[in-house]
Every structure is written in C-alpha cells, then in structure tokens.
Amino acid sequence: MSRYRGPRFKKIRRLGALPGLTNKRPRTGSTLRNQPRRAKKSQYRTRLQEKQKLRFHYGLTERQLVKYVRIARKAKGPTGQVLLQLLEMRLDNILFRLGMASTIPGARQLVNHRHILVNGRIVDIPSYRCKPRDIITVRAEQKSRALIQKSFDSSLHEELPKHLTIHPFQYKGLVNQIINSKWIGLKINELLVVEYYSRQT
C-alpha cells in the first residue's frame, strides 16, 4: 500500500489531531455537528484507528509500519514503547521535532532534496535512524537555509522534547539521547497498535 497523498482534513476529522501530517485544523461547524451519531466502535475498529493514527502521523506506508513492528518485537523492552522510539528517531521526524519543517512530509522533502547533513555528511534517506550525539545541520547554500528559516519563522514554538537541542542561528540540531516515550506528546495507545498487528500476522 502506497503512502497516503489524499485530503489531510479527511484524516484528522476521523482520527483526531495528527501534527506530523498537517499543522492546520479543520473548522468546527455545522458540517461536523449535523453528522449522524456513529454506532459503538468494535474492538477491531478501535485498534485499527490507533494503527491508522500512527501510520498517518509519521507518514508511513503499511509495509514500513509492519517492518517497524517486527523490529520492535525482537528488541528488548515493551514492544509498544520500542516501536514509538524507532519512529521518533527517524531523520524526517527529528527535523519536524526540531522545527526545521512544519510537517513530516515537508521534512521528508528536505531530506530527499539533499538539504540535510548528519555529522557533516549529506543524508537523503528520510528513514535514516538517528542516534545519540548525532549533529544535524543544513547545507550552507542560501536556498537550503531559506527553506529552514521559513519553517522557523512560521513555527508555533512548541516546547522541544528533552532529547533534542536546537541552535536556530547556526541551523543546527543535536540528538542528546534516545527519546523517552513520555515526551512524544501524541495521543495514541501504542498497545492497541501492537495488538492489531499480533492479530493480523
């Protein structure tokens, strides 16, 4: 299944806030109030929605998410927490958290277009897994820095997770440590995602 490229509001109306997908919010109005009440959700549907939240927030294909779940199962520690840590340490997500991009798709585009360096080397793979002490910088070209500055100027200045440090005037970010799942700030029950895949595979 390919990466979702359809209407973003349609997803956040159904699943709730997905800051990685879009920083916009749908207008609350008569279109939402007049919708018929939905029947009680089944357990399967609840697990599916939690999985979809994770998938659309991080901008993953179904195949990619299945791969991350399998890696998390083999790692030490609770599968759900390990899964969130794997997703949070992706380069495209780190750029989003640092405020260098307003959304994860925007961050992915920066990486694909070779604007980003990790430890002094260009990395053009959005799924690159960052590690503690990684230094993330922007290419010295004016075009690259203008793109990042635009994001800095339009960002909502949300609190930076404790595992990251940003030096905006140097266009540089630091990964201090592996993220603690408590700092993720995404309203999601990762255990239901693990349950969903345990019943699917």
The dominant shape is elongated
Class derived from helix and strand content: alpha+beta
β-strand number: 5
What portion of the residues fall into strands of 2 or more residues? Answer: 5-15%
Output the strand order for the largest sheet: 2-1-3-5-4
Low-confidence stretches: 29-36
N-to-C CA distance: 16 Å
Cα-atom radius of gyration: 18 Å
At the fold tier of CATH, the topology name of the largest domain is: Ribosomal Protein S4 Delta 41, Chain A, domain 1
Count up the domains: 2
Task: Give the helices and strands as they follow along the chain.
Answer: HHHHHHHEEEHEEH
Model description:
With 201 residues, the protein is an alpha+beta fold. The chain folds into 2 domains: 8-86 and 186-200, Ribosomal Protein S4 Delta 41, Chain A, domain 1 (Orthogonal Bundle); 90-177, Structural Genomics Hypothetical 15.5 Kd Protein In mrcA-pckA Intergenic Region, Chain A. Helices cover 46% and strands 8% of the residues. It is built from 9 helices and 5 strands. The chain has a 5-stranded antiparallel sheet. Helix 4 crosses helix 5 and helix 5 packs across helix 9. The model is unreliable at 29-36 (pLDDT under 50).
How would you briefly describe this protein structure?
46% of the residues lie in helices and 8% in strands. It is built from nine helices and five strands; from the N terminus they run αααααααβββαββα. Strands 2-1-3-5-4 form a five-stranded antiparallel sheet.
